[in-house]
Amino acid sequence: MADIELRSDNAAGVAPHVLEAVAAANHGSALAYGDDPVTADLEATVRRVFEHPGARVFPVTSGTAANALALSALCPPWGSVLSHETAHILNSEGGATSMLGAGAVMRGVGGDDFKISPGALVATLDSVRWGDPHHSQPSVLSLTQATDMGTIYSVAEVAELASIARDRNLRVHLDGARVANAIAALGCSPADLTWRAGVDALSLGATKNGALSAEAIVVFDEAPAAELVYRTKRAGHVTSKMRFQSAQLIAYLSDDRWLHTAAHANARMAQLAAGLASLGVVFVNRPVANMLFAEVDDAVATKLESAGLLFYRIGPGVIRMVTSWQTTPDEIDAALAAFADALT
Amino acid sequence: MADIELRSDNAAGVAPHVLEAVAAANHGSALAYGDDPVTADLEATVRRVFEHPGARVFPVTSGTAANALALSALCPPWGSVLSHETAHILNSEGGATSMLGAGAVMRGVGGDDFKISPGALVATLDSVRWGDPHHSQPSVLSLTQATDMGTIYSVAEVAELASIARDRNLRVHLDGARVANAIAALGCSPADLTWRAGVDALSLGATKNGALSAEAIVVFDEAPAAELVYRTKRAGHVTSKMRFQSAQLIAYLSDDRWLHTAAHANARMAQLAAGLASLGVVFVNRPVANMLFAEVDDAVATKLESAGLLFYRIGPGVIRMVTSWQTTPDEIDAALAAFADALT
Amino acid sequence: MADIELRSDNAAGVAPHVLEAVAAANHGSALAYGDDPVTADLEATVRRVFEHPGARVFPVTSGTAANALALSALCPPWGSVLSHETAHILNSEGGATSMLGAGAVMRGVGGDDFKISPGALVATLDSVRWGDPHHSQPSVLSLTQATDMGTIYSVAEVAELASIARDRNLRVHLDGARVANAIAALGCSPADLTWRAGVDALSLGATKNGALSAEAIVVFDEAPAAELVYRTKRAGHVTSKMRFQSAQLIAYLSDDRWLHTAAHANARMAQLAAGLASLGVVFVNRPVANMLFAEVDDAVATKLESAGLLFYRIGPGVIRMVTSWQTTPDEIDAALAAFADALT
Amino acid sequence: MADIELRSDNAAGVAPHVLEAVAAANHGSALAYGDDPVTADLEATVRRVFEHPGARVFPVTSGTAANALALSALCPPWGSVLSHETAHILNSEGGATSMLGAGAVMRGVGGDDFKISPGALVATLDSVRWGDPHHSQPSVLSLTQATDMGTIYSVAEVAELASIARDRNLRVHLDGARVANAIAALGCSPADLTWRAGVDALSLGATKNGALSAEAIVVFDEAPAAELVYRTKRAGHVTSKMRFQSAQLIAYLSDDRWLHTAAHANARMAQLAAGLASLGVVFVNRPVANMLFAEVDDAVATKLESAGLLFYRIGPGVIRMVTSWQTTPDEIDAALAAFADALT
User: Fold this and answer.
1) Contact partners of B by the rule of 3+ C-beta pairs under 8 A?
2) Domain boundary residue among D203, D233, D256?
3) ipTM of the predicted structure?
4) D213 touches chain C (CB under 8 A)
């Protein structure tokens, strides 16, 4: 059996429509650093997709860049960024936000289901000595959507948390490395999940979901956008041949293809989760997007690996499996068969 | 007449062999962030091309990132980076080196032909109060090769400047956004121009010379390489699907194609310069690579623009023209015809 | 009744021997920025007091400066500093360590009695993905001694934690804003509590314990000391007339006066704690140094305030009281009388 | 003969009225970190002295801190600070402004008499590509008053330069390490030289001119002041017993004593300069404040040193002499006698 890739959606390849768009953009010459018509089209596309006439988009080449640069434009150096204790920005970006944010700090907030709870957010904000320079001032709420554990905030949850944050003058950021999976799962509009719910800026993931090397910062306010013109450049995140980044993102967003590829990944996870549940496998998270954390004995895991399943062992007795735009129904069937074997 | 692109080599498209390599890499799955076989092949390729068994390569997505990250690993925060007064890192990267270098400063050094002269370098170093914390300590010499004004340091010049610098314990960096043009023009080996001449690290430009979105830091010493593992990540310059960056760079470097495309651009510039010289146009620089700065009256420049020539007006009476891997002999002939018309 | 100051040892004045030393240093002229004989004497004094011939001392003017600068010299920008969840550097210095450390991050570690426990430290270190740049690399263990909650690590506890840390190549820092109170309470030697126990650098508090405007970084290793020459200057922490800082510190350290003033403060706290215990007041911490956190009803607290007691309300039903070198036995007697009144 | 101190005003001691004020403030207890009545009095004093009802003052402990923190609040990270090529912030503060300014860069501007000329400033500003993130955006004009070479901008010169700067939306900063010497020499009011001339913020030097360890940032606008509340703290420049810093500054400013001590230093320099001129000594600068750079043969310099004169050799054949509040007429007479001897 060929290996079945369930380690990460980052391990998937480039979706055909994205690669074709890059090739199609490769004609004639165009000014560098974003002064090209393709990048202008991208901004129009983003405004249409997000139904926001003033939205600004900054293509970058990694999710860490998108998050840390957006946060650096939303948070003063003496501020703190609040995220869930399990958030990627807090645990898996090597301190990028503190570096690009000139020493801004990150603070974890609790909450079940790997999501910040309103009560925990209020308690955190109530404990702050506002205006006292001894204490980092909470300045941004960052929600990871979908979370690093594959759970999803509802639109109402985002709106409630954003409302609490904005009442204390915090800005609201969405780490959307997998936001397409969340939107597809929720069936909402991009606008409803973001600016209409109180979100100021968004890291728009694309690479995991089929792009080649394109992420973007989408900003709904002018002030952070004006800063990002400079912040992206001096962090080395204004690519010279930006039209090829922009072309990827246009192809990605157009005709709802980003939501189709994400829905595909989600459907494969639903297929996998249903099969595993019927096999009695216990889940650590609710796999509503494209990620599953499951309790699997180490001996079973070893059998699965021998059978060609690729996944991550997260800790003793827990494995992580992720589906992507590229995962096929047959692969999931084969994976389930491998589980059935290994569990008997 | 179709427009003739002479504004920048950044305005050129992607070379076919690079785009094909990206497409060819798009099969199966691979671990993200550089843990993939293509990236391993890239390191082997770089070691072969540079004839250095310990060379390390870090793919990034912009020249600014390559320069500022390399310099941040070579220069302590209290150090200064010396470059020519006209250098890109000093004038055109928005302070990236100071930002990523935690407040390191940049200092311009003089010299004719837009190159640092040994005398100016010695004078600068002699004027330093070494060990006195009131004064930023020169820690890195950065040579731009080819320079931003299209001139080139000979191998002997690089070696002499590097020797002066190393005698004072400075590290040596090459801003090689157009290093292929320099190597092609000099006819030297990559090794001779870099580590054998005393260079510690190199920004290896590729995008201007035919890549899609790939630059790289090449490091010949272990200590800065060990830092760059972390510095690239926290600056957001470790792309998730790095194999597609690496595939570009392998295609770019293999079979001397980077030198062929650069030689092509240089040859087009030689063709242009010879023609302009015979028309009596006065040059600001010696166009030994692919860039020409020429004295052209503003009225003439306007005529050239009307004829479809694309170039930059650098100041009153001076224009910049740059050839690329994509510039054709016919385009140069047409450009020369336009000049002949405009000058009469 | 005159007010009785129990809010903070920071609220106390300058001890007479310190003020006299400043006046005594005010004769003749001396070179600025530490090139003066008084500062040379200070280094000799520190080496004698800490029984370490290579100790280096850097006078600064705040505890935040001492901590953040020392940590910036011990921790790479991509590292993390581990401290107890209640530590001052984590909660009360406005992110100074992340700013001066170029984006280094701080992580809280748990443990009873407001001290890091060996088990919690080991668990934290075991959970790290070492060498993976996605994850900040623990690089420094910072122990607050005495803690912000007035408890004290024994010499054996410091040594055990330092040993665990050093086994993983972490450096060890002591936030000694109240280290004199800890040494006085433990009855140990400064050397035993610091470098002999594995401590690399120390923030030596002096202002709370009787100085005018003097703190110091004491470093037992050459590498961070060499960095601090530059780091202190560029953070604006090399005072021009440094001899007056050094004179304070010499007077402070000489003849064990720092331990005498600290022992005095501790003794007053012991007097207060004994009295309150006999009144049935419940303590939140073990007041082994000069700080007490006690459960006191808000109504009682209001009565105490009316009686002239100055203290901090930390939260509902909890107050903080701190004694200093200036607190008198009579003041404690009066404070206890006020408590007796208020509690009846 | 006792040594005669002419190396630096930094080498002088503490003026009696300042030391007395520190001692006088040492009674009772007071809240730390500036929440004390003495610091409140300081703000009132500054508002009165500068005739500005909204002025804010931030005591710090070094001139480098005053400059770099003020500039960090006036300049965005992607901005540049323009100062004269000989300015202290550019050459002698170890890159503090770039570090505390999160990578802001500094650029030198020319001009005779060691002062920025309007023409050079206009030319610099005209050469900028405004709004282009490749190029650091000039954001602050910093004037050193008196300059590091002892010359002085007239009120009209400050106003003209500030007007040019403000027309391009730059903020204006005064490095006033020796501003008292300038005001005393000009005979103007502090208000006329600062906010009435267009200055937004001022580094108010005090230590060189008689204080113990006190400098201050004076800000005339609310926005940078609001930032400095946090920026000073996280740089470790909010001293705990701030009342003793504030007491120094009140004593320094009250009853025009800062101008008297500065006028004294200026007068001693005038005495010295007149004597030296009559001896035929050639000056490098116009010694209108308290600093003289003079052409003195190295052999003569050696004789002067033997005679007990303390001064700095700046380069071959040039020495620097500085008078202070402590320099006596007799010392100048003795210095002149030594010169007369050495020159014959």
Assistant:
1) A, C, D
2) D256
3) 0.96
4) yes
